[in-house]
Amino acid sequence: MHDLVIRRGTVVDGTGRPRFEADVAVDGGVITQIGRVARGRREIDAHDLLVAPGWVDVHTHYDGQVTWDPLLAPSSWHGVTTVVMGNCGVGFAPVRPGSEDFLIELMEGVEDIPGTALHEGISWGWESFPEYLDALAGMKRAVDVAAQVPHCAVRAYVLGERAHDDEVSGDEIAEMSRLTRDALRAGAIGFTTSRTILHRSRHGLVPGTHSTPDELLGIGRALGEAGHGVFEMVSDMQGQEPDLTWMKEFCRTTGRAITFAIAQTFVQRDAWRETLARAQQLAAGGLAIVPQVACRPTGMLFGLQSSFHPFILYPTYRDRLHALPLAERATRMRDPQVRAQMLSEDLDTQDPIARILLTNWTQMFPLGDPPDYEPPAERSIAAIAERTGRRPEEVAYDQMVENDGRQFLFAPLANYLDYDFEVIREMMLHPRTVLGLSDGGAHCGLICDASMPTFLLTHWARDRKRGERIPIEQAVRLQTANTAAVYGFADRGVIAPGKKADLNVIDFDALALHAPEMVFDLPAGGRRLVQRVDGYRATIVSGEVTFEDGAPTGALPGQLVRAG
Ligand SMILES: [Zn+2]
Q1: What is the SS3 string spanning 110-177?
Q2: How far is ligand 1, taken at its centre, from the CA of residue 188, in Å?
Q3: How confident is the model over 483-509, as pLDDT tens digits?
Q4: What is the CA(7)–ligand 1 centre distance, in A?
Q5: How far is the CA of 200 from the centre of ligand 1 (A)?
Q6: Could you report the per-residue pLDDT of 284-308, keeping only the tens digit for each?
């Protein structure tokens, strides 16, 4: 008698091979048999349902939430069974007693996670990174988590007040390298840094944004010494010079992989394609340069509850409306007089980035319900305005006050210059890329992309009409075997005897994303955007059912994944 049998499902096993009908048997948290198997103490009837490995999401920011929320929603709602945290250089260890607030401010600034929630939610109780890992290992949760060493925290720990300095001494580099090596030996699965001018806190650009190659290579040496770990970064260079030289040097001297986000933007229209071609060339020489790509554009959601939207800097809104409760705000905004006043005003800011983002009407679309993430050009606010003889501001305004102010405008940050997903498709299917960038747990007031693993199935494998789809076998592989392989998770990502029993049982026809919504359930009443989903019949972690028809079962089999 097996512990658990998933009976007669359509198995998409993560390797990319064609789906097949089979039973899957689980014993002791491990997959033991696939085919026709004996009875189980528990059986799940998966007839007409998909059985896939649990999703491995390598780009999240649950570093704080992981210490207070055993469910790690919304990722866990979407079939994610392993999350990688500590991305983009921000996180909460190592930390000198007394400097916790500084790390919270960085996380709040870069990832838009409410500082009050982090203050109230995190219990601390560690100083070194190994101590942080031990603290995580001692907590129960529904999903497996793995942690990377964030450069900002390491810099703050070693440099103190000088954390933001560009130049550091050889001794300081050696100390940062030692801390990183010790963290990796204790089970950290990577080191991460930020090199983008978009990542700021109230202290300015985050520590290490302009680190020298000496520093990056010096710290990077730790990964070679530990013999494991991925170097992750977010960089405005997108894999081009001046990053490229030290990146190649890093891969050559350590034998480790480096991964970084790429995207098509209006300032870098074609850089991504060169970066992909170069990654392919360098792979032939054994260098693991792994561009990280998303399965839909990183999408800002502009709504009245968002931290950023087209009217947030209008004087009347800022001074008279912003602080009102949502329903009252929407009602007031529908008042013709208020509407006329608002639409006679303009953004009260000279910040060029804000002005561009908040008036980019050709790249703003009503998201709708069900949400449409690949809208045609004629659905943009600019196109609707032109068609109806209104100003774009009027169209956006009227959209946003609909549904009591709960309507969102979808504003893709990148990858949507041609008004379809062909660029994204090329990125996803490139042999050197890895799927990531869901940013689970982050950007709580503006972005909700933790649902990307579900979208991969609903949109790419089933619903897409504006171009070619991706066969489901390939789509599943991208979010399982592929992501697991980049991070060296050899025990998961495929359905095979001996692998960890992390599984999803999915009603593929019924799988459906809800419209995103703002909820106020973080500690201290902090807000976050979440997105519900239907169609996950069961999610299984280490052989235990953690979610059944979208509801948590109370089982908390998740563990800390330690590398090495
Ligand atoms: Zn990130």
Answers
A1: HHCCCHHHHHHHCCCCCCCHHHHHHHHHCCCECCEEECCEEHHHHHHHHHHHHCCCCCCCHHHHHHHH
A2: 17
A3: 999 999 999 999 999 999 999 999 999
A4: 38
A5: 13
A6: 999 999 999 999 999 999 999 999 9
CA 344 – ligand 1 centroid, Å? 38
Q: Rounded CA gap, 343 and 332, in Å?
A: 14
Residue 61 Cα to ligand 1 midpoint, Å, equals 7
Degrees, nearest 5: CA angle 132-135-136? 90
Stretches in the chain below the pLDDT threshold 50: none
Q: How far is the CA of 234 from the centre of ligand 1 (A)?
A: 7
Tell how far the Cα of 24 is from the centroid of ligand 1, in angstroms. Answer: 35
| Distance in angstroms (rounded) separating the CA atoms of residues 496 and 156 | 43
Distance in Å, CA 437 to ligand 1 centroid: 6
pLDDT at residue 541 in the model: 98
Residue with tokens 């799940």: 44
Question: Residue 267: what pLDDT?
Answer: 87
Distance 307 CA to ligand 1 centre (A): 18
CA 287 to ligand 1 center in whole angstroms: 23
Spacing, Cα 286 to ligand 1 middle (Å): 26
Q: List the one residue out of 508, 479, 507 whose CA is nearest residue 494.
A: 479
- DSSP class of 309: -
Span from the CA of 20 to the centroid of ligand 1 (angstroms): 36
Query: What secondary structure, in 3-state letters, does 78-108 show?
Result: HCEEEEECCHHHCCCCCCCCCCHHHHHHHHH
Q: Which pLDDT does position 111 carry in this prediction?
A: 86
Alpha-carbon distance of 36 to 44, in angstroms, equals: 14
Q: 421: CA distance to ligand 1 center in Å?
A: 21
| Radius of gyration of the chain from its Cα atoms, rounded to whole angstroms | 23
Q: In the prediction, which pLDDT does 197 show?
A: 86
Measure the CA–CA gap between 163 and 160, rounded to whole angstroms.
6
Cα of 191 from ligand 1 centre, angstroms? 13
Residue 195 Cα to ligand 1 midpoint, Å, equals: 12
Whole-number Å distance between alpha carbons of 489 and 509: 30
Please report, as a single letter, which amino acid is at residue 299: G
Average pLDDT, the chain: 96
Nearest to 76 by CA among 143, 144, 136: 143
Burial of 233 (0-12, 13-18, 19+ CB in 10 A): buried
- Ligand 1 centroid from CA 512, angstroms: 25
- Using alpha carbons only, give the angle 539, 436, 281 rounded to the nearest 5 degrees: 130
Q: Distance (Å, rounded) from C-alpha 120 to C-alpha 192? A: 26
pLDDT digits (tens, 9 = 90+) for 171-199: 999 999 999 999 999 999 999 999 998 88
d(CA 324, ligand 1 centre) in Å: 32
The confidence score (pLDDT) of residue 198 equals: 84
- Given this model, what pLDDT does residue 26 score? 98
